[in-house]
Design a protein that fits this description.
two-stranded parallel sheet, 98 residues, alpha/beta, 4-stranded parallel β-sheet
Length: 98
Amino acid sequence: MSSTIKLDEECTIYQAAQLRQQLADALMASDSLTVDLSAVGEMDSSAAQVLLWLHSEAARLQKQLSLVHLSAAARELLTMLGLLIYLPIVEEEAGHES
């Protein structure tokens, strides 16, 4: 079973615990998890830590994880932290919707 989670506008330290729990529950409930980052308007390093944890937890559980539709804020932070090459980001081809 596959599921998709669309993250909220704010992904900061104030939402980190709730975000981690939401993503943990979604990962446990499915074989494949897609995280849509298109609505993220603000993101800090605590959200990046949650995504890193999610990536390692998915690998540990042998489940598929994809991060899609990075907003400008998400792309900027993940680029600044050097995480674009580490996280499982799926780039969409121009003109194609998933």
